[in-house]
User: What shape does this take?
Amino acid sequence: MNELKGAEELVRRFGLLPEGATVLAAVSGGIDSISLLHWLHERGASVAAAHLHHGLRGAAADGDEAFVRDFCAARGIPFYVEHADVGALAARERISSEEAGRRARYDFLERTAAKIGAARVATAHHADDNAETLLFQLIRGARSGLGGIAPARGIYIRPFLGVTRAEIEAYAAAHGLSHRFDAMNDDDAFSRNYLRHEVMPRLAKINSAAALHMAEAAQTLRAESEYLDALAAQLLEQGGAILGARRASVPCKAVCAAPEALRGRMIRLLLDALDVGKRDFTAKHYDAIRELCASEYGRHLDLPRGVTAEKAGGVLRLTVKST
Assistant: This one.
C-alpha cells in the first residue's frame, strides 16, 4: 500500500510529531484532509478532528459535517465542530468570503487546540499546494512568499507537503477512503483553481515530478529567506527602527547603507510590523518605498490597506490611516 513516504520523511526532518503529543487535524471532508486524518490515526498518533461549518453551502455543508462526524465515530476519533457565519463576518470586516473563512477556521482551530491540550494542529496542504503558491506569488509580483507554505509554523504542521496530490489520491484509493466534494473547487473563476486545472497539468507534461520539484525549491527558498530576514531585522534594530502595529519608522540612512539584497527585506519587515497583513503589497510597492527612502526630497506615498509612507528629516515613516 502507498504509505506516503514523503510525509514520513518530512516528519523526521522537521520533528513534526513529538512522541505522545495530541494532534488536532483540520478536516473539511475532502480527500486531502480525510487522508491526513486517516494517516495520522493509522500511524498511532493521538489525533482529534476539527471541522468548521462555514454556513455558506447550505445542505452540502451539512452533509460535510455529517460525513466527517461519521468517519470519526467509526474509528473512535474525537470530533469537534463549530458553526460560523462566514458571510456575515466578510460583510462586517469588508473582506472576501475566502479571507473570512480562513480567519474563522484558524481561530476555531487554535481555540480548540487550547481546549483539548493539542500540541500540534495538522492541515492537509500538500506539494501541489506549495507549487501553486509559488506560481501564484511569482505571477502577482510578490517579493515575499516565494518560500511557499512552511512545513511547521508555531503549533501548525503540514506533513503532506512532502507528497503530491496524486500520491494522496492513490493512498485514499488503496485504503478505500471515501470523501466529500466541494463544487467550488471546480470553478476556474478562482485563480487557484485555474492554476490547478490548467497550468499544473501542462507543467506535469514537461516533467511528471514538476509539482514536487517546485515544492522542494520553495522549501530551499524559505530557508534562505528566513536567514536573510534575520540579517535584515538585525540591521533594522541597529539602525534605530521603531516597529508598531499602526506606525513604523526607520532612519533612511540605515536602509540605504544596507547591502542591496537586504534593503527590500528591511522595507518588508517594516510593513509586516503594521497590523494590515501582506495582501495587495507587491514588488512595485516595496520598490516605491525604497526609492522614497533614497530620494533627496521628502515625498508621500499612498499604499494598499490604508498605509501611507512619508520621508521627513531623513526618517521613513509608515502609518496606517485611521478609519
